[in-house]
C-alpha cells in the first residue's frame, strides 16, 4: 500500500539534517560532546542549551525555554527588517493545535449575547478544535480559479451576514496553505492584516517555526558546508518532485492540478463520471470519498478525499501526497479513471 496522506518526510526516505540530529543527540546524552566526530559548533550549541536547560527532558517554563524564545525573537527581528521583537511576547507550543487552543481559550465568550466565531479558509485543514471549544466556524472561499488565492473580497462575503449573528473573534490563514500548497504574496498578507484590523479580529497564522532553523550554522561554522549541501539538496528535490507530479497528474484526462508553491501536497481536482457519483450516493458516500475508497481498493493508494477539507459542494477534489508518489505509480490513477469513464 502507498500511503499518500502523511506529511512525514522521514517515512518518505528523507533523513534528518545532520546538524539537527547531532545537536539533539548530544543534548540528550552529553557524553557525546567528547566524540571527535561532532563538530565544534555543534558542541558549542549543545553547551549553550545545557547552560540554560540543565537536563533535556525535564520541566521547562510553561511558555517555553527562555533561551529558545530569545533566539527566535532575534531571528524574527532579522527576518522582519529590524522590527522589534521581545522574547517575553513569544510562547512556544507543542504543535499548532495546542497553540490555537490556547489562543481560542482566551478569546472565548459571548459578546452582546452573540456566540463567538472564528473565520477559516475553505478548503483547509479541519480545525475540529474550533467547534469543540464552542466557537461557530465561518468559512471563506479560496479563489480556485486563481491558484487558490486568499482574497479580502471573499472574506468580506463570508462575514457579511455572519457578523450580524455572531461575534467574530479571530481569523485563521494557513501559509503555505494546507491542502492547496499555495503561498501568500506580500501584498496579500498586507491586505489580510488590514482587513482583520478593520474587523477587529485576532489574526492566527498557521505556519510551523522550528527553533533549529532560526539558529542554524552560518558561513564559517564547521557545520555550515554540510548544512548548506543537505538543505539545498532537499529543497531542489522537493521542487523537482513537485513539478514532476503536477505535470504527470495534468496529463491525465479529467485531472486538474495547479502548481505547488509550498507544502508537501498536490491538491487535485478530479472530474468524476456521473455513474460513479450515482454509485457513491447509493452507498451513502460523497463522490470524492467514493473515489478515494475505490482508488485504495483497486490500486492500494491511500489519499485524503477532498470533502475532508470542507468542499462537499465541489466533490470532485482529492488530495495526493507528492513526496511519496512516483511517476510510474501515477499510472494507477489513470487506469482507474479511464476504467470509470469506459465501463458501461
UniProtKB/TrEMBL annotation:
Top-rank lineage group of the source organism: Eukaryota
Alphabetized GO MF terms: L-alanine:2-oxoglutarate aminotransferase activity; pyridoxal phosphate binding
Enzyme class: transferase
Catalytic function, reaction form: L-alanine + 2-oxoglutarate = pyruvate + L-glutamate
Gene3D superfamilies: 1.10.287.1970, Type I PLP-dependent aspartate aminotransferase-like (Major domain)
Pfam hit, one: Aminotran_1_2
Cofactors demanded by this protein: pyridoxal 5'-phosphate
Pathway assignment: Amino-acid degradation; L-alanine degradation via transaminase pathway; pyruvate from L-alanine: step 1/1
InterPro entries linked: ALAT1/2-like, Aminotransferase_I/II_large, PyrdxlP-dep_Trfase, PyrdxlP-dep_Trfase_major
Domain Aminotransferase class I/classII large: 42-208
EC number: 2.6.1.2
Swiss-Prot/TrEMBL keywords: Aminotransferase, Pyridoxal phosphate, Transferase
Summary of subunit composition and partner proteins: Homodimer.
Family per similarity comment: Belongs to the class-I pyridoxal-phosphate-dependent aminotransferase family. Alanine aminotransferase subfamily.
Name of this protein: alanine transaminase
